[in-house]
Amino acid sequence: MTLHLGNPLLDIEISVKSAGYLWSHGVISDELLDMQRTVCNETRYVLEYIRNETSNECSKVWELRTEEMGNDTVKDDILLPTCVSSNAAGQLLALGNLATMHEKKVGKVADPCLTEWIDLYLNKPEVQKALHANTTYLPYAWEICSGPLQYRLDDVAINIIPLLPDILKEHIPILLFSGDQDSKLPLTQTRKIAKLLARDLKLVAFDKYGPWYDGLQIGGWSKSFGGLREGKNVTYLTFATVRGAAHEVPFTSPSQHFLEHF
């Protein structure tokens, strides 16, 4: 058994910092990168936001960040095109065209209209009947992530990293993986946490950083760390990126998500 943690929020002091990632992808300017390093970084902004205490300094930095990123940039997937179709027929046509025009070597481009298409499909009466859903005939349409469940924002600040060594000590390997198009919890920060864990637990690198394969194509890049157990080398921790994947790797890159060879 291996514990898979994808694009994980493990420590708010590390995981959410995305300015360097965005800058390296050309999404924000040199000036904004400097402001996020010296005036207000992501950690400070998130903590102020959940406490409803957003400072003027952070507000100004985030206004500039929103302006530079643009309204059509999705933080979950900074390379995702915008869904421009406004009806079911148009969406279906757009999906077909996109699948043809933007085909990748590893799978296909993340579908910009997928959420809208799912909404349309799951609101069909015959589909809801087959799923035994909406048996009370609610007077409004179903939406993704709708309902009474809410995040406990105070929990965002909990540092999860100290729990990971306890899991590893039970001989349960951990795979930390990140879709490389996610800017919410970017791969740069997940890699940093993997490196810190390996150092603190005195794990050694078992291989050089390099590509892993999804069939005949590169699925991403990885590095594994481990140690001796009963005289044998055992992998305890692996960091991997998932090429072309977004914040929710199984949603955007299902074939690569299984990472079978890990």
Outline the secondary-structure elements.
Layout: E1 3-6, H1 19-24, H2 30-38, H3 42-50, H4 56-69, H5 88-101, H6 114-122, H7 125-130, H8 163-169, E2 174-179, H9 187-200, E3 204-205, E4 210-214, E5 217-229, E6 232-242, H10 249-252, H11 254-257
Parallel strand pairs: 1-2, 2-6
Antiparallel strand pairs: 3-5, 4-5, 5-6
Helix pairs in contact: 5-6
Distance between the termini: 11 Å
- Tell me how many strands there are: 6
Percent strand = 15-25%
- Form type: globular
CATH-level-2 architecture of the domain at 158-261: 3-Layer(aba) Sandwich
The CATH class designation of the domain at 158-261 is Alpha Beta
Give the mean pLDDT. 86
The protein's oligomeric status is single chain
Radius of gyration: 21 Å
The helix count comes to 11
Pattern of helices and strands = EHHHHHHHHEHEEEEHH
Structural class: alpha/beta
The low-pLDDT segments are 94-107
Q: Tell me about the largest β-sheet.
A: 6 strands, mixed
User: What is the CATH topology classification name of the domain at 158-261?
Assistant: Rossmann fold
Bin the helical content. Answer: 25-40%
